[in-house]
Amino acid sequence: MILFGMANPYRIRVHSLAHARAALMAAREAGRIVILDSPAGAAGWHGIGWWRRLVRALAEEFGDVATVLDCGDAPGHALAALRAGCRGIRLRAAAATLSRVGGIAAALGATVEDAPPTGVLDLQEATDPLAACARHLGA
Q: What does pTM read for this prediction?
């Protein structure tokens, strides 16, 4: 799959602004491009506003950042995320629903994933997120 114009990018699941900063600092140091993933169901659990604030803070510090907000199996959350300006979302839904949401996303210049990617580094239990990211990125 090609997401945000990148084939097989590195993926890192972040649970906080500190995690996201560590991932992007490690990526910068390693000369790698990463996509930051939210935790599963984050649109419903943490909220779309939380994710948008995190992405805005990162954009101020690092420039344009590729991110994916997981909307679980809630198309309403996916549509709200798109309306809020999220450029990458994940939605687990029936094919017809994915097609409709995907069409709306495409019209807004956004991307929809239908399944979690493989090979993602999840920073939830990382005691040293920067070092974990550096290892994941091969730095």
A: 0.92
**Half-sphere exposure in the Cβ direction for 98 (13 Å, CA):** 14
| Dihedral pair phi/psi, residue 16, rounded to 5° | -160, 170
pLDDT digits (tens, 9 = 90+) for 35-48: 999 999 999 999 99
Does a structural domain hold residue 3? no
Burial annotation 112-123 (CB, 10 A radius, 16+ → b, else e): bbeeebeeebbb
In this structure, which amino acid lies at residue 45?
A: W
* Number of structural domains the chain divides into: 1
C-alpha closest to that of 80 among 49, 107, 122, 117: 49
- Of 86, 98, 101, the C-alpha closest to 56 is 86
Measured distance CA(50)–CA(16) in Å, rounded: 10
User: Side chain identity at 71, as an amino acid letter?
Assistant: C
Q: What is the pLDDT of residue 103?
A: 97
